[in-house]
Amino acid sequence: MLSSLENLKHLRGKPKNYKNIAQIILYHARGNMKLRLHDTCYCGSGQSYKRCHNGKHFECYKDFRKVEIETLQNDYVVFANYWNIN
């Protein structure tokens, strides 16, 4: 089973965009978020997914969408508790 948090294991400390990451996990888990190629990237760069890091962030989001909803919901709880989000 894939986990949306597997890619965050390498982080040391709190990433500056951790609230954006939590929001994406939560919205997608609720089934009401679909990012488009021209939407502003979640990393906070101000660029669209298409331009941000040559589209690598959009490719990561496409992989993220493959994670099961139940897993995302569980991951959000872990993520929110770890960084005291709410």
UniProtKB/TrEMBL annotation:
It holds the Pfam family SEC-C. This is SEC-C domain-containing protein.
